[in-house]
Here is the input.
Amino acid sequence: MAIVHERFTEYGGSEAVVGELARIWPRARVFAPIVDPTAAPAHAHPPWDTISGSPLSRIHAATGRRSHAPLLPFVPRALRRLPLRGRFDAVVISHHAFATQAAFATDAPVIAYVHSPARWAWEPEFRAREAGGATGRAALAALGMLARRGERAAAGHLAAVVANSRAVADRIRDRWELPAAVVHPPVRLDRFSLDPAVAREDFLLFAGRLVPYKRPDLAIRAAQRAGCRLVVVGDGRYRARLEALAGPETTFLGAAPDDVLADMYRRCRALLMPGVEDFGIVPVEAMACGAPVLAVGAGGALDTVLPGRSGAHIAAGADEAVIEGFADVLRDPGSTDLCPMEIRHHAESFTPEVFRTRMAEIVAAAVHR
Here is the structure.
């Protein structure tokens, strides 16, 4: 087996997926063109001897690993040149934007686990929020064209496609014209649990990276409008702008370790999720601690949040409508008065064990087809 990931530059949900794939096939070789070893799953085997010395990794290291963005235009070619051909029975790809280009480097069956077709490539509004200034928008538009062409070209070389949510499966159908099975990402629920001794308090929580697409600005404005306290856990390039927007009702804690985050999950009235996520691991972590989740009813929240059981959906729409939708729900104390045990039970359907079982089945079927 070979496992291909686009880049290991920071550890997040997609890197956790690669780690669980490596647990299914502990002898698999793991490839990526840009690697910071500190951002790779520690238990993947064998070590990073095949990839940490790649030209792009060397350039990334030589520049102090400040940013991988300037290297992205060179990633598709590096993926197409991976040493895969004739060596493996199957190749499993973890795809964000370019990783499916590895399908051109092998004659083995290729199974793509798709976090999403590149949203910044396909959605102009998403791209506009992420790019900084006219130069950034132009660069991202050009890179987006490269990503779209590459995704379409590689689609015909995939033996099976797996989406991380129903929303992503719909995007794959619309953009790649392929069907996709749905296997939700693994969430480490052993780190997040209920504590009946901890009482709920009257504050709301936003948790996650402070970047535009997660829309923490909408959480701040909704809390202001409803007259509620809000705690923000996380950090990112958007923080200074958010602090300028916020009033005294909002507290910024910055990045926090799991124990602090779990404590916030256990004590908050509800978690707010105003951005449209491909899947969204944070809401599942919060639900594992018994916290209700109030989320925009789009993207991964349609899979993770069950209205009336684990939280509520706010109708998607223009910013002002979303803010007012959150505020309306927050003004009703009963909207978040849900059973913590039932919320926790729902979260348990997203465990790593469920992920590993489903992926092993899908890959075996593709190899023996």
